[in-house]
Structures are given as C-alpha cells and as structure tokens.
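Handout, section B. The chain below has 282 residues.
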Amino acid sequence: MTQQTPIRRVALTLAAAGVPPLPLRAGKVPFGNCRACKGNACGGRPNMKTPGPCRCPAPCHAWAAATTDPAIIVSPPWAAAWQGAVCVGYHPGGAGLTVVDLDDADAIAWARIALPATRTVPTTRGEHWIYRGTMPSVNAVRPGVDIKSTMSYARYLGPGTGTMTALPDAVRALTVKERPAARPAPHVVTLPSGGGGEECRHRTPTYLERGIAMAEQRITGASSAVHTTVYRTFLAVLSAHGGCGCLTDAHIVRLFAAAQAKGETARHCTDAWTNARTALGM
C-alpha cells in the first residue's frame, strides 16, 4: 500500500468531509466487479435501479462502491484496487452534489452565460461546475455537457475555487423533455413575455443581451433535434431571466425568429414557450 498512500489519503479526506470516494483505474474508470459479483451474479446493486451503496466488501458496481466508511476504504478487499488506482473518483449524488461536466471551451463559454456562478474545478479539457443539490445524471444534455449527480461518479481533481451555490433550474431544465401542449394554441398569438421589460434585478442588461445572442446561436447551430433544442433553449432563457421582468416581446421575437429559420412553425414556438413556462412554474 505504500505506493498508493497519497491516493488513499485523498479518499479518506473526502470520506471525512462526507464525500463518498472510490478508486479509479487507468482510463478514469471504476474497477470491475469481484468474483462474487461478476456478471451481476449477486443480483443486488448492479441493476442500478435505485441509488445506494454496494453491499459487497470490494469496490464493485462503479458509483455504488463509493463509501464514506473509513473502515471499508482501508479494508483488505480494497487493497488491490488502491494498489492499481491512478486517481480517486467520487459519487456526487451521495454527497448531495451535482457536477456539470463541461468538456471543452465552447461548453465553458455557454455555461458562463447560461448558468449561475458556482465552485469550479479545472479538468484536462474543460471544467467541473459543482452545485449543491441532486438530480438524475444524464450525458450529452448539450454539446460537451454531461450532468453527474445520482447514480454516477466524477473524478476528484481538487477542491476548486469559488462559492458553491444551489443547483439552479437552468441545470435541471437541461434534462427535461418537452411535454405535449395542454391545449391547442391559436395561430395568431400575443407572445407572453413574463415581465415588463425592466432591468433585471440580478443580472446586467449586457448579460441578458449575451444570453439572448447565445440562445439564438444555439438554435441556429442545431444540426439535428431542432425541436428539442428549441424547447431546451427556451427553458434555459426563462430559468435565467423569466422571473425577474427583464424579458421583452422583442427578445422573444428574436428567439422565435431563430427557431422558425430552422423550420419550426409559429405554432410550435408558442407551444414550446408555454410548456417551458409551465415546467418552470411560471
């Protein structure tokens, strides 16, 4: 164990802070299941239907192996795993956290406009933005963005910088599928702005303008799943600005115009906007 003492020390430090660690081997992936659990023979956590710790004494079943019990972390069944580990992973959901994994510069640029600031940790290619609160884990919610929370694991790369803030609706909205409109919308409508065009109380006018421009670019740049992209973009805009009176009809017209330029109908734009407001309780 002498060669892996630093890695195990990191794991014990995380466990003491209430963050459940697990060893990761080359490729930043968990170790395979033990013989007793190989091929899911144990019939327990490998089905991954509910979050919770693995009951096996060895680090099996990926995220479910993560634990805050120091006795397990230093136990003989984990010795071989720590000996071969190259880094430490952790289960964000087990610590009440959500990691927004931004995999490249474009994803980071989007997050700086669309998401509230929080604690950030540099990664090999991008950043982890860490929020307080949990949600289902989903990969590829948009280009270069994964959500890691419950029933998932993330690589531990240090404490990061900045103040950790509460998980925002803008992140939850990334995984929300559009629901059918509750009722047919007329073809000629007055667009609901949700505010009177006053200055946003928590963002600057420049922030809003950049947000609308980024939303237009996101819709315009969609090469597939345009319908879903439009809905998720509307969710992101509304979650950031819909409750503070800064959106105007002019902003919404710009978003609708970008969507219609990609082939969406005015009817669908209105339905998507209404559904997004409903999903956010507006």
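Note. Strands lie at 21-25, 29-30, 87-90, 97-102, 119-122, 127-132, 138-142, 145-148, 154-155, 165-166. Compare this with the example in section A.
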